[in-house]
Write a structure and sequence with these properties.
Blueprint lengths: L1 E5 L7 H9 L6 E5 L4 E7 L2 E8 L4 H9 L4 H14 L7 E8 L4 E9 L5 E2 L1 H5 L6 H17 L2 E3 L7 E6 L2 E6 L5 E3 L4 H6 L8 H15 L3 H32 L1
Antiparallel strand pairs: 1-5, 2-3, 3-4, 4-6, 5-6, 7-9, 8-11, 9-10
Helix pairs in contact: 5-7, 7-8
């Protein structure tokens, strides 16, 4: 059985979209080819779109995603719609498609518009001399504040999941990889914890905290101390995992 949900704007292109899904293994251009998920781009009547193919879940999760919990593809589509309703930018959600057996979910796909972005957030981490870096970080703080004010807890808020587009002297931020998200009210501690995966330097933490504090009507130290605490704790956790993995590989 195939479940097909297409945004009303793209209903007239349903046949072409399904043809892309059916030929996904042999057609399209790779955008990313990961161990778990694959993204390819396709030309839809002159418009470039991206199709994300999620890894086929194992038996238990296959059952869960059909009968208990929405699939990653469905969540990605629905979360994108919620973000856009709150004026939070993300590639436009076109459709999601699920292939199901009698016992559970098999293949699933999320289809969205392609974004021609200038760089992602990682560029600001790797290059301390990046042009307009401070200004971009201040605008990013405004973007994060908007997320939190709209009760969006983006659980995959990592450097590769924010695409940045330069428009004149302003910068637009687009969220991608949306399937892990909660919509809930957050206190300051939870808001700053939400930014811990960004792998921020102390200077980046200071710049973001300064602008966020202004918007939240807080003292700088209130925001900065909490963000620094969560950021450092996350870095220690990841570095410890890397150390233990390296140690394990040496023994084996």
């Amino acid at each position: 059985m195939q479940v097909v949900h297409i945004h009303p704007t793209y209903q007239d292109k349903k046949e072409a979209i399904l043809a892309f899904i059916n030929d996904f293994e042999t057609q399209g251009e790779y955008v990313t080819k990961g161990e778990r998920n694959v993204i390819k781009s396709f030309d839809l009547n002159g418009e470039k779109i991206n199709i994300k193919s999620f890894r086929v879940p194992k038996t238990f999760n296959s059952f869960v995603y059909k009968f208990i919990r929405p699939s990653k593809a469905k969540r990605s589509f629905e979360y994108a719609e919620k973000l856009l309703l709150n004026a939070i930018k993300t590639p436009f959600p076109i459709a999601y498609v699920e292939n199901q057996s009698a016992f559970g979910l098999k293949e699933s796909y999320y289809i969205s518009a392609h974004i021609d972005y200038d760089f992602d957030f990682r560029a600001l981490i790797h290059d301390p001399l990046f042009e307009n870096r401070r200004f971009i970080l201040e605008q990013f703080a405004e973007f994060c504040f908007q997320l939190h004010e709209n009760n969006v807890n983006f659980l995959d808020h990592s450097p590769g999941n924010t695409l940045i587009v330069k428009r004149d002297k302003q910068y637009d931020f687009y969220l991608i990889d949306l399937n892990r998200m909660k919509f809930e009210s957050m206190n300051l501690d939870k808001r700053m914890e939400n930014l811990k995966r960004l792998w921020l330097s102390k200077l980046m933490i200071h710049i973001i905290s300064e602008r966020y504090a202004e918007l939240a009507n807080k003292e700088l130290h209130e925001v900065q101390d909490v963000l620094l605490k969560h950021s450092q704790a996350f870095k220690r956790k990841i570095n410890r995992k890397k150390y233990l993995k390296k140690k394990y590989l040496k023994k084996s």
